[in-house]
Design a protein that fits this description.
Layout (H helix, E strand, L loop, with lengths): L6 H10 L8 E8 L2 H10 L6 E8 L21 E10 L7 H13 L7 E4 L3 E4 L2 E11 L10 E10 L24 H22 L2 H10 L6 E4 L4 E7 L5 E5 L2 E5 L6 E3 L5
Parallel strand pairs: 1-2
Antiparallel strand pairs: 2-3, 3-7, 4-5, 5-6, 6-7, 8-9, 8-12, 9-10, 10-11
The protein binds biotin (BTN).
Enzyme class: ligase
EC number: 6.3.4.15
GO molecular function: biotin--[biotin carboxyl-carrier protein] ligase activity
């Protein structure tokens, strides 16, 4: 798996991040097809230990709805951070997990909200309608699973650190160095990883409720006219306590929970 990692990357990831995540194996590789694909492969092979897998470059990065996630063109310039967190999880209810993950990452990147880092349902992170972070969440069921058994959760996160071209992205990119000129992949990972694990464990214990108001505080769609990829159009009234998107249409209030739809402020293309 992967080719040998650049020494600086491996050293800094190991030195900075591993001590923050006791119980997790922290791995850094120079190149891989996709950190999500790798952890899902391992889970299907029965390897379900907690792990953080970071790659300098992905050759087949994946996004939501089967879309590709382009790797940074110049990994040596540390222009992106791509990683996946894998861990067994057994919440009573999975609804709202992806939103809770978005809240955690947005708060780590912009704790005070000064830089207007916002959340676009279900879990994109935007700044001024430009995409800063993409999140892809997948789960694998153990072969011998009981219905209420833990699933292996894989949370894949791609963060634009340096400038990147739009290169086919549906939403124009934003990047962290626009306001944090010294940002680097290991340091960003250091600020994001530990709160993310804490948030996932809080979600497992308490569900989406502790995250609902925090999501609302950064919701970039609330109060805007939106269009969904399934044709629904209306006024976004924010997110419900179960994590569903609320859209007021001519037919009344619709609660959108499907992961299979994409939503855009009206006028923006899919
Ligand atoms: O915006 C999206 O549609 C989600 C993008 C998720 C990209 C990350 S990068 C690390 C992890 N590995 C992948 O192949 N995808 C996720």
């Amino acid at each position: 798996m992967g080719t040998p990692t650049s020494a600086w990357f491996e050293e800094r990831i190991a030195a900075a991040v591993a001590p923050l995540l006791p119980g997790f194996m922290v791995e850094a590789v120079a190149e891989i097809d996709s950190t999500n694909t790798e952890l899902m492969r391992r889970a299907r092979a029965g390897r379900t230990d907690p792990v953080l897998l970071v790659a300098e470059r992905q050759t087949a990065g994946r996004g939501r709805l089967g879309r590709p996630w382009q790797s940074a063109q110049q990994p040596e310039a540390q222009s992106s951070l791509t990683f996946s967190l894998g861990m067994p999880l057994a919440p009573a209810d999975w609804s709202g997990l992806s939103l809770a993950v978005g809240v955690s990452v947005a708060e780590s990147l912009d704790p005070t909200g000064a830089h207007k880092v916002g959340l676009k349902w279900p879990n994109d992170i935007w700044v001024n309608d430009s995409k800063l972070v993409g999140i892809l969440i997948e789960t694998a069921m153990p072969q011998t699973a009981q219905p209420d058994a833990a699933r292996y959760l894989v949370i894949g996160i791609g963060i634009n650190i340096g400038p990147r071209e739009a290169d086919g992205m549906r939403t124009p990119p934003a990047w962290l160095r626009q306001w944090q000129p010294e940002a680097s992949a290991p340091e960003v990972l250091q600020s994001v990883a530990e709160p993310l694990v804490r948030s996932v464990l809080a979600f497992e214990a308490h569900g989406f409720a502790p995250f609902a108001e925090r999501f609302a505080a950064r919701d970039v769609l609330r109060g805007r006219e939106v269009t969904l990829s399934d044709g629904t159009a209306g006024l976004c009234e924010g997110v419900a306590w179960g994590g569903e998107l609320q859209v007021r249409t001519d037919a009344g209030l619709q609660l959108i929970s499907s992961d299979e739809v994409s939503v855009r402020p009206r006028g923006m293309s899919f």
